[in-house]
């Protein structure tokens, strides 16, 4: 009988059904976890396995491209994307002392301790709290850049709940790995702006610097992307606090060595912020991890690399979605 029903669905408009099920224009909801309020969106059926997307430094949930979210949902996942604390519509840490980013960055370069109002592990606890509040026991995690660092902690905090881990353009934080150029770091930290126009221009400059040298960016498109994020929420001090959390983080090599979660590591060969050896190093320290290197990919979700990224990620997620599905039967 199930086979008959499935055939009827396939023959009577499965693409339209899937498109409706995976509509990304959904309301943004909020949930309070102690002192932190998280804004999130849920795309897909609640009965499907859950895929949690964790965004990188300063990124908002809208920085996950809608078409990518829809493709992930189309694989049979309920997709959750959310704003980390201190960005977007999630709560901002107003009570934190002012940030002296230059001073803390110098301490980091000298190997001294860095002071931060919260840690990446705290941010992982936020994500785990979101899963608890939604009543989700087991889930898959996909993290990008800082989101990949948070995802590492999340898998360590809840090893029996994270069914698979996908880490894109991220790092182990170990000493000795190639560093980004000082000019790029300066762009990353340059968040203060006396006007909206200057803020948009600064963000467009950063996006261009994070892009692949093999792709010619359209300046107007970069400005439009910056405008959409700025108009939704603009919190430069929050981004600086997130950056402090990264700088204050010790090496995660011991954490990675003890992970036993199925893991895919995806990294670009042209990443200017976290050069390719960062991804190689992460994969080398997670037992059984798969490594996919994408030629030319830098440190952004650029249109030219959308299909190569999806080609690397979707089969892996689908395989582990099926494993999790059969494990529940």
From TrEMBL:
InterPro entries membership: AB_hydrolase, AB_hydrolase_1, AB_hydrolase_fold
Domain AB hydrolase-1: 49-300
GO MF terms, alphabetically ordered: triacylglycerol lipase activity
Signal peptide positions on this chain: 1-18
Keyword field: Hydrolase, Signal
GO biological process: glycerolipid catabolic process
Domain of life, per lineage: Bacteria
PANTHER family referenced in this protein's UniProt entry, alphabetically: AB HYDROLASE-1 DOMAIN-CONTAINING PROTEIN, HYDROLASE, ALPHA/BETA FOLD FAMILY PROTEIN
Entry protein name: Alpha/beta hydrolase
Gene source species: Pseudomonas taeanensis MS-3
Taxonomic classification: Bacteria, Pseudomonadati, Pseudomonadota, Gammaproteobacteria, Pseudomonadales
